[in-house]
Design goal:
Blueprint lengths: L2 E4 L9 H10 L5 E6 L11 H10 L4 E6 L7 H6 L4 E5 L6 H10 L3 E6 L17 E5 L13 H16 L4 E5 L4 H10 L3 E4 L1 H4 L4 H9 L2
Parallel strand pairs: 1-8, 2-3, 3-4, 4-5, 5-6, 6-7, 7-8
């Protein structure tokens, strides 16, 4: 059974507490929260006040994905705002090892995300320090995009690297996840699935989450 992490980027912002409570009551495992700065990606999303508001009502871990430049500046702030897992982009970190150690020193789990064009091999030197690898199956920045098929192969590659290096990292996939792509990803070795519009645009989000759990 995969970990299911619904992406609150796709929730109804006017009813965020209602949607948070729906996730609490569902079979979802985590809350996936995308933070974008309009620089690293061409979109702007949540800041700290929204994270703190979600944390107030969330009964499950907050899986925070930073699509921002200079994430090091804000690691402590994200801890204070309630992040349990903090994922940074490989492409945004000049000193990735230092960033990962900083996240861990704050008591959070550390993840690294890879854009669709970024090679898995670049994680070879850091994989043993990671708690999570996030494979982007769309170009980051917007919800509701079409799934990039190569992500299935990348999941297999990450899994092989994790086994080879004795890492305990979880493999998460974000972008275009539905029941058919989700099934392919789980078969390839994905441990966690992020689903946004597929969950929140469905007629019965609780049932949709349950179906993802069954994959």
């Amino acid at each position: 059974m995969p970990i299911v992490s619904p992406s609150v980027l796709s929730c109804d912002f006017a009813n965020i507490q209602r949607d948070v409570e729906m996730i609490n009551q569902s079979e979802a495992d985590w809350f996936h929260i995308d933070v974008m700065d309009g620089v690293f990606v061409p979109n702007i999303s949540f800041g700290f006040p929204v994270l703190e508001a979600i944390k107030k009502h969330a009964t499950k871990p907050m899986d925070v994905h930073l699509m921002i430049q200079n994430p090091d500046q804000y690691v402590s702030d994200f801890k204070r705002s309630g992040a349990d897992i903090l994922t940074v982009h490989y492409e945004a970190c000049t000193h990735l090892h230092r960033t990962v150690q900083h996240i861990k020193s704050e008591g959070m789990k550390a993840g690294v995300a890879l854009n669709p064009h970024t090679s898995i091999e670049l994680l070879d030197d850091i994989i043993e320090d990671l708690d999570l690898v996030l494979v982007m199956s769309v170009n980051p920045g917007f919800g509701g995009q079409k799934f990039i098929k190569n992500a299935v192969y990348k999941v297999e590659q990450v899994k092989n690297l994790i086994h080879k290096r004795g890492s305990k990292a979880v493999v998460e996939v974000d972008g275009g996840v539905n029941l058919s792509t989700g099934k392919e990803l789980v078969m390839a070795g994905a441990d966690a699935l992020v689903a946004g519009s597929f969950v929140f645009n469905s007629e019965d989000p609780v049932r949709t989450i349950a179906q993802l759990k069954e994959l």
